[in-house]
Each structure stands twice: as structure tokens, then as C-alpha cells.
């Protein structure tokens, strides 16, 4: 009986000392302030006009983001990795896709602090047949998600090579995000 009481005391005190999440926020920092610290400016994403698809679809507390390519008003990354672009340029291309996805998340959620977790990422790299550093390219995206969301930015991921990407983009990345309702 003495051991049961001691065990109850230990378990009870463990739960009572657990840290609770802030009431109005999932983070101990403001994600949007973090973007400013990183020097990242989001843009207004435009909905696709050539086909009947959406940039994001919400199902329950999950947001599924369509594939996005590394294009912005100031920079476009086109061509094949291993021929037209280096692995480092591919990394930067994937990072730009990450910024594009953050812009989409901001548009659909209104507040990036509503992101509970980056769940799954599929990175497709426009690659020459002998190019095998697809994972190093998509690290540009994954590193950005961790920089912005911390541990909540860690995700399951696939990084694969493709013979072609729409608009000859260097890569295309889609993701699944768990959100706070």
C-alpha cells in the first residue's frame, strides 16, 4: 500500500507540473513575428485559373495544400537539377516554394499561429536521370518549416525525382498541415 501511495504521489505531481500551452497561442512565440526576424515577406497567392482546383482544401482539422512551384515576382527557378541548376540552387528553389506555401497558409488561416503541425510533405524535383540529391534539394523546404514552426515544423517527407515539372519548375512541393480549429 505504501508503494501505491508513493506511485500515486509521483504520477500526480508529474501531471500537476506539466507545462500548459498558452491559451491563445500554440507557440511560446509569435510565428508571424518569427517570419519578420527571418526577413521573410509573404505575398498574396493567386488561385489557379487554368483548371478547376484550389490551392488548399480543408477537411476536419487538416489543410491539404496543392503542389506549388518556385516562382515569385522577383525570382523563378526553372530547369533540371543536375543539368541547368546546382543542388544549392535547388535548395533555394525549394525554400521559395516553402515561402509560397506559407503565403497560402496565411491566406487560408488568417494567422500562421493556427498551424499545429506540418504533417507530410511530398517534394518532387525536376531531375536529370543521374541526379540523386533530391533530398538535399527538398531540405530547403524542410529547413524553412523548422525555422518557422520549430518542432511543429518537423514532418514526414518524400523527395523524388521527376522527368518534368509543370512550367519547367525546378521542383514542386505539396504538404498536409494540421490546424487549430
TrEMBL record:
Instruction: Quote the CDD domains the UniProt record gives.
Output: YjgF_YER057c_UK114_like_1 (cd02199)
| Endpoints of the signal sequence | 1-18
Q: What keywords are annotated for this sequence in UniProt?
A: Signal
Q: Where is the Endoribonuclease L-PSP/chorismate mutase-like domain?
A: 34-175
Q: Does the keyword Signal apply?
A: yes
Query: Pfam families from the xrefs?
Result: YjgF_endoribonc
InterPro entries per record: Endoribo_LPSP/chorism_mut-like, RutC-like_sf
| Xref: PANTHER family | ENDORIBONUCLEASE L-PSP_CHORISMATE MUTASE-LIKE DOMAIN-CONTAINING PROTEIN (PTHR43760:SF1), ENDORIBONUCLEASE-RELATED (PTHR43760)
Official protein name in the record: Enamine deaminase RidA (YjgF/YER057c/UK114 family)
Q: Which organism is it from?
A: Maribacter vaceletii
Amino acid at each position: 500500500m505504501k508503494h501505491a501511495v508513493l506511485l500515486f504521489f509521483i504520477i500526480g505531481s508529474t501531471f500537476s507540473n506539466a507545462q500548459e500551452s498558452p491559451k491563445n497561442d500554440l507557440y511560446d512565440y509569435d510565428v508571424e513575428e518569427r517570419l519578420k526576424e527571418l526577413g521573410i515577406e509573404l505575398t498574396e497567392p493567386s488561385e489557379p485559373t487554368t483548371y478547376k482546383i484550389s490551392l488548399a482544401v480543408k477537411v476536419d482539422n487538416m489543410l491539404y495544400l496543392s503542389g506549388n512551384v518556385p516562382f515569385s515576382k522577383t525570382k523563378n527557378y526553372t530547369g533540371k537539377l543536375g543539368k541547368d541548376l546546382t543542388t544549392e540552387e535547388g535548395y533555394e528553389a525549394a525554400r521559395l516554394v516553402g515561402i509560397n506555401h506559407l503565403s497560402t497558409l496565411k491566406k487560408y488561416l488568417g494567422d500562421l499561429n493556427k498551424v499545429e503541425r506540418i504533417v507530410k510533405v511530398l517534394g518532387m524535383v525536376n531531375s536529370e536521370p543521374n541526379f540523386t540529391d533530391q533530398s538535399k534539394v527538398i531540405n530547403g523546404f524542410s529547413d524553412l518549416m523548422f525555422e518557422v514552426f520549430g518542432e511543429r515544423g518537423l514532418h514526414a517527407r518524400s523527395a523524388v525525382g521527376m522527368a518534368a515539372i509543370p512550367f519547367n519548375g525546378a521542383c514542386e512541393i505539396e504538404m498536409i498541415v494540421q490546424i487549430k480549429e
